[in-house]
Amino acid sequence: MGRLIAVEGIDGAGKNTLVTGLVEHWRAQGLRVATFAFPRYGRTVFADVASEALHGEHGDLRESVYAMALLFALDRSATAEELRSAIAGHDVVVVDRYVASNAAYSAARLREDADGAVVRWVHDLEFGRFALPVPDRHLLLGVPAEVAMARARSRASSAPGRARDHYERDDDLQVRVDAVYRALAASGWMSPWAESVDQTPADLADVLLAPTTASTE
């Protein structure tokens, strides 16, 4: 049975780059590694509808925090069996965004704290009703929000075909999401959290695979 590692952070924090580095490092050590990235745009209808809503389609759908959160949760639920199979067949499974992302963005949109009602709702929906696997470890990319947002803007300007979505364009939202993420990490939400600012994948690899005692709060 492999270990499930969830990598979290706001847009532009560098999740994809770090995940790529971790995978390369672990595979070089002979470990069997699988990766997933959420939302699974182009792979599930739930992710695609959410993306369309964030780009102005589907009327006022994106205005509902709970409706958007449900779409992202259903995206993961549709992938649950594939995820469980990967955990059973690999040493490490790394996910770029997971349930904590839904909790952080939903709480930030409602201006709630990490111990607010919507975080509990996300917990009960995704880990309870949908029975998604609980991560063995979370990794928060803790670069300053201003740095991450500048990276996201630069990335968008260098890729004209990729318009930033409603969440990505909202700097105030990104700052609030960052604050909720840090509170989730401080509380050890669902499992132990590590934080990375400028560590290399090699610096983090052993930490992420160290034995842990998971929390269920």
TrEMBL record:
It is an enzyme of class 2 (transferase). Its EC number is 2.7.4.9. Pfam families: Thymidylate_kin (PF02223). InterPro entries: P-loop_NTPase (IPR027417), Thymidylate_kin-like_dom (IPR039430), Thymidylate_kin_CS (IPR018095), Thymidylate_kinase (IPR018094). It catalyses: dTMP + ATP = dTDP + ADP. It comes from the Bacteria. One of its GO terms (cellular component) is cytosol. The keyword Cytoplasm does not apply. GO terms for biological process: dTDP biosynthetic process; dTTP biosynthetic process; dUDP biosynthetic process. Belongs to the thymidylate kinase family. This is Thymidylate kinase. It comes from Gordonia desulfuricans.
